[in-house]
Amino acid sequence: MSISGRHFLQIPGPTNVPDRILRAMDRPVVDHRGPEFAELTKEILPLLKEVFGTHEGTVVIYPSSGTGAWEAALVNVLSPGERILAFNYGHFSELFARTARNLGYDVEEVPLRWGQELPAEEVEAHLRADDGENPYAAVLVVHNETSTGVTSDVGAIRDAIDAAGHDALLIVDTVSSLASIEVKHDEWRADVTLTGSQKGLMLPPGLALLCVSPRALERGTEGGAPRNFFDWRPIIRDNEAGFFPYTPATLLLFGLREALKMLVEEEGLSNVYARHRSLAEGVRAAVEAWGLRNLCEKPEFYSNTLTAVVVPEGADSDEVIRVARERFGLALGVGLSRIKGRVFRIGHLGALNELEVLGTLGGVEMALIESGVPVELGSGVRAAQQLFTRKPTEVAGDQDRAAV
Amino acid sequence: MSISGRHFLQIPGPTNVPDRILRAMDRPVVDHRGPEFAELTKEILPLLKEVFGTHEGTVVIYPSSGTGAWEAALVNVLSPGERILAFNYGHFSELFARTARNLGYDVEEVPLRWGQELPAEEVEAHLRADDGENPYAAVLVVHNETSTGVTSDVGAIRDAIDAAGHDALLIVDTVSSLASIEVKHDEWRADVTLTGSQKGLMLPPGLALLCVSPRALERGTEGGAPRNFFDWRPIIRDNEAGFFPYTPATLLLFGLREALKMLVEEEGLSNVYARHRSLAEGVRAAVEAWGLRNLCEKPEFYSNTLTAVVVPEGADSDEVIRVARERFGLALGVGLSRIKGRVFRIGHLGALNELEVLGTLGGVEMALIESGVPVELGSGVRAAQQLFTRKPTEVAGDQDRAAV
Amino acid sequence: MSISGRHFLQIPGPTNVPDRILRAMDRPVVDHRGPEFAELTKEILPLLKEVFGTHEGTVVIYPSSGTGAWEAALVNVLSPGERILAFNYGHFSELFARTARNLGYDVEEVPLRWGQELPAEEVEAHLRADDGENPYAAVLVVHNETSTGVTSDVGAIRDAIDAAGHDALLIVDTVSSLASIEVKHDEWRADVTLTGSQKGLMLPPGLALLCVSPRALERGTEGGAPRNFFDWRPIIRDNEAGFFPYTPATLLLFGLREALKMLVEEEGLSNVYARHRSLAEGVRAAVEAWGLRNLCEKPEFYSNTLTAVVVPEGADSDEVIRVARERFGLALGVGLSRIKGRVFRIGHLGALNELEVLGTLGGVEMALIESGVPVELGSGVRAAQQLFTRKPTEVAGDQDRAAV
Amino acid sequence: MSISGRHFLQIPGPTNVPDRILRAMDRPVVDHRGPEFAELTKEILPLLKEVFGTHEGTVVIYPSSGTGAWEAALVNVLSPGERILAFNYGHFSELFARTARNLGYDVEEVPLRWGQELPAEEVEAHLRADDGENPYAAVLVVHNETSTGVTSDVGAIRDAIDAAGHDALLIVDTVSSLASIEVKHDEWRADVTLTGSQKGLMLPPGLALLCVSPRALERGTEGGAPRNFFDWRPIIRDNEAGFFPYTPATLLLFGLREALKMLVEEEGLSNVYARHRSLAEGVRAAVEAWGLRNLCEKPEFYSNTLTAVVVPEGADSDEVIRVARERFGLALGVGLSRIKGRVFRIGHLGALNELEVLGTLGGVEMALIESGVPVELGSGVRAAQQLFTRKPTEVAGDQDRAAV
């Protein structure tokens, strides 16, 4: 039997698309070579730069997925056979490394624990150990590991690269952080920062977005791999006049403009980041109240966009997820790959507010109980409410302290 | 600052319009004299009869509001000057009586307490006392008082009319019950049962709907007041072929078809009623856990579509409502007229599920705390969860016992 | 077999709802007692006044149909039994008079030819002949007869009333003219000007709109018929704060705001009127090129919103309409009542441009040929094109001459 | 000043997205790892196979553009350095060859005239001349050249390959033909047939679609270029259960299901092809009536999805296009690259009917006149009407004869 009312889509992306954005896309296709379209492009790109935290960078949009963003970030700046330093601390950092291998790069993949952040000292150590024969051409970093709920400190990683005196490119995956957790492309001196449309940007899937540093642009001018679809040169060239070298995903771009209005012009990015921090703290307080463990090992790396919750020994997280979906219309994220059955993930990114979080937490509690995991009904909800009813000033103070 | 994510519209109507219904209405207007339109009408009317609980009755649809439904129910069967028996047990029963007076009827309006149901014995007593000079031509009953959260027992009222041996018409307002609480037009031998589109039918406002008994139809053929827009005769005549005597609200009718598919064909009406009972029990358990009072005096008349909660002496329910809206994006119903400031109303009708109720209850708790009304955070949510996690079989058993 | 592509809905209303307006309505219902809603009301009313051509008048909106607008215009200002002067020069003027009779008024209905305008001298003569015993309390005028395609000169009728020295109220139906042909409520000193949402305002059906003079307002304060739903007093009172005394048709009001933005703020009303004149001239040139007759007798009263085309003796206009619909996806208006089978009507009002008119004319030509009415293919299209390719300056000159 | 009413988007893609399809996409995102999504995939793939004309082939969908489809078709089956035979007979065949070069293939690009079809004998001659040292691994064919309006005969090209006794892969671009002109993947023994979503499939841009033969699948298993995003192996593997290896473009897939229902289940593919032939004949008759030249040299290769019209010496097609857009809201396709300014293109593919074609032709006539190109107003419209009013039986007879 189908469930009445609104379903709670609380996977860590795709996220809920606000009605306003759906409406912005529910429109006739326009001629992508006409003046209306050119204006659209010119409105979007500067707003996106704010979201990436860049003045110097160049933003590139592809009609593609986040997987495509990985590929775009590599083939434009790295020649086949070049060496890449990657770290495996979750499903997506593993897949990013695999993508690079599939594309013909020589990938050094350092294993870490899933639940661990990417430690800056590990990066430094590996770069220092580089004997320079086929030196590392790039370091791959996943800012926010969507499989484990860990946000690594990219600023510290940049410092580590500098400390090692290495000039490897810094390529940062911000798929599940951008527009929800602050991204600082310029401050990090990232070379390529990449994301997809279906997470913090509150859009349906279908766009890959990159922010490219001048250094990376230069690499792309002469070097890189043989490429066509992901070649950013013709896109950047045609974007100057507001156009694309091929038919762009017009409706998603209309949606993107609306999303950027909401995030940058109306709510304001610092408020967006503060809201995600506050909602995440509520979820984490609930997990603690339930007596369950956050897969992320250290509190300072807790992700503000999703929380991976470890179920007790003997319990099956897939069963919790099934009950949540079938009985309560609540979609949670599964444990991926090697942590399948051991964790469920609560997404708390994109368009979201306190009451939706409370409904979600209430649903998780009921699904846990019905799956045989003993928690006290209402305990997590109450823990979150206690945070949500703090005075705004307290939250503001907290904001300064907690800023990553 | 606007609030991110989905707002919680939990007033007792208009209710949340499901996306499916919005989509069904987001379409080009069709020719209301063409064959596609005729099919639409012919699909809708039989499904509506099921919702009204009728085989014998005739359903009439007006492009109007619930207020218009009151007028339509009166002017077709009653001549100006005829006497009407009405009872004041809430804002809407009061307005229904005033409507009748405005239209030139001689209304006997019996005062009752707001929070009280309409007692069958009161009806019987007044009808027995009728001296027959200008006998009561009709009795007005509001099935579910939207201002107080009280569902009266229309079956018992019918029995009372019979017991008094009186032949007054029985006119029943089911504006906030139909399609959420079972309505039994035939079993009640109601003469006119009336409603609007924006409550249990999950549509935007804009339609008035009536179910008319053969006896009422006959009255309307020759009697009634001078009338035009609300005259049901030309509508019923043209509906035979699937048309309307004037331009109908085409888009709302497309929405109505979708709503009826969802309620009658997919979820099933008995499941719809059971769902509303279960959600209402959850809300009532929360109110009890908070230590607050339900305005409805007797548990057997608690409404399954809304709950009017009395705030403690010294508190201002308007303040609770303001905080809920401004801080949490939660819309609650105000105390109307003489109970302004003393109650807030939680709507739990239409498209709704457990998690939405938990989010709502969690929001009410926070709004109460922030308005200075002491309640234990999470207590109401937990009370509701305890009911929602009962086994379905228990719910089923309950269903038999609790059926009004 | 269904027809691919976009259907041509060219009946004289409901008209095509632009995508922008559909999107504006494709949204969650809001609380009609909240601040967002109040702002909406306050934005709409002043823009509507511009469309009615009034400074002094008060605009009232009902969730109802055009038929309801007739009733509202009568019951607020006239007491049952009062005498009304009406003229029968088409289906809708006949129905307006019948509505008044149904509501208990004493209607003098003067027969005229269908195809004729309402002659000012007829009005004057009847008012002069008024012996004052039960004097005419109101004169009913249909500005644009939707059944015949005739636009009467309301300014001249006002002069005739003045010339007769009579103080009857002037009630004007502008259902199929408002927002497409200029309406001058103040200049005409109309007492009530009425319309519906589904014509020039480009909305789905569901709203009745009135503009009320101070004199009519005063009448309504004490006089009028027993009334409730159509009583404008509580609406005007609550509108001051942006609210309605009952649940308004919220989504249509969102659509109305968008429509008014398009008409008043973007295109500009004088451009809207000029566009309709130009498109209508194109259609009329086509009718002449086909050798067919316009039902409207005198060119100076040709309607700019629709054209009723008389088919030759022996032909059946219903057959032309059937072929147009089934073969070409083109909806045309039927001949109503006594002219059934003798005319078809081409609607050219609302959201419409030259190319849509050419497609329509091309479709009419093919439907005529396939129904056995001999016309030269392309002849009407060419005649319209010749007008549409005139220099804008010529059109402007024309505009001054042709202004009604 | 913006233009009222519906714009005529008659570029050769993106095409008009029907309201039904927009509605199907105007919906909440679903969990792409949940059962609802799996059903969607399983509904879509078999219907797509019908559109590709295949039983044996495997359909693969990417969230990408048509450009991406080119890349996908190459990198899965060809290793860098392999030799490819391509022909330049228009802008898109030129770009397809350039794509292959960009990806590191050794491309032999045979120049032809723009306006010419791809002659089977040219293919045969080049394959026969292959000395086998680095033999042609693939032949690239653009079925319908969108820049010139020429549909080549892929069946004859297949015969030529066979006649030459060559085993090069046959890779066919059907971007602007599929779902409007019949595509016969199996009968042609094509190895990869590729398209995008924004043409005959009536969707917004954003999907690349491939049909892959068993032989090509096998090549892809072991060979091909280093690849990741466009690697079809994981997609085909996950599609078995209804899923994708990465986040798919969910909303476009909902739209695709609706489009396939309309094309395959409701209208029927043979009717779709017949409709496009009939509409195209109407457009071509108009071009002839205007005395203008079709860029396509031979009538037997005229495209049924677009017509490239050559403007007379001294005229500028960009000016015609500008006037059409600015004065009449009509979007036409420009002359691309080396034929810029010399042709304008009328798209007549996707959701389209006779009246839309007549409106378009009428608009082209007016734009020509206003740009100083002398044509007789109405002449093209009449020529099309004469074809559109032929008896259906004549059309049916024609259908058999004209089938490519």
Automatic annotation (TrEMBL), chains A, B, C, D:
<comment type="function">
    <text>Soluble hydrogenase catalyzes both production and consumption of hydrogen from suitable artificial electron donors or acceptors. This subunit catalyzes the tritium-exchange activity.</text>
</comment>
<dbReference type="GO" id="GO:0004760">
    <property type="term" value="F:L-serine-pyruvate transaminase activity"/>
</dbReference>
<comment type="similarity">
    <text>Belongs to the class-V pyridoxal-phosphate-dependent aminotransferase family.</text>
</comment>
<comment type="subunit">
    <text>Heterodimer of a large and a small subunit.</text>
</comment>
<feature type="modified residue" description="N6-(pyridoxal phosphate)lysine">
    <location>
        <position position="199"/>
    </location>
</feature>
<keyword id="KW-0808">Transferase</keyword>
<dbReference type="InterPro" id="IPR024169">
    <property type="entry name" value="SP_NH2Trfase/AEP_transaminase"/>
</dbReference>
<dbReference type="InterPro" id="IPR015421">
    <property type="entry name" value="PyrdxlP-dep_Trfase_major"/>
</dbReference>
<feature type="domain" description="Aminotransferase class V">
    <location>
        <begin position="30"/>
        <end position="335"/>
    </location>
</feature>
<dbReference type="InterPro" id="IPR015422">
    <property type="entry name" value="PyrdxlP-dep_Trfase_small"/>
</dbReference>
<feature type="binding site">
    <location>
        <position position="345"/>
    </location>
    <ligand>
        <name>substrate</name>
    </ligand>
</feature>
<dbReference type="GO" id="GO:0008453">
    <property type="term" value="F:alanine-glyoxylate transaminase activity"/>
</dbReference>
<keyword id="KW-0663">Pyridoxal phosphate</keyword>
<keyword id="KW-0032">Aminotransferase</keyword>
<dbReference type="InterPro" id="IPR000192">
    <property type="entry name" value="Aminotrans_V_dom"/>
</dbReference>
<protein>
    <recommendedName>
        <fullName>Tritium exchange subunit</fullName>
    </recommendedName>
</protein>
<dbReference type="InterPro" id="IPR015424">
    <property type="entry name" value="PyrdxlP-dep_Trfase"/>
</dbReference>
<dbReference type="GO" id="GO:0019265">
    <property type="term" value="P:glycine biosynthetic process, by transamination of glyoxylate"/>
</dbReference>
<dbReference type="Pfam" id="PF00266">
    <property type="entry name" value="Aminotran_5"/>
</dbReference>
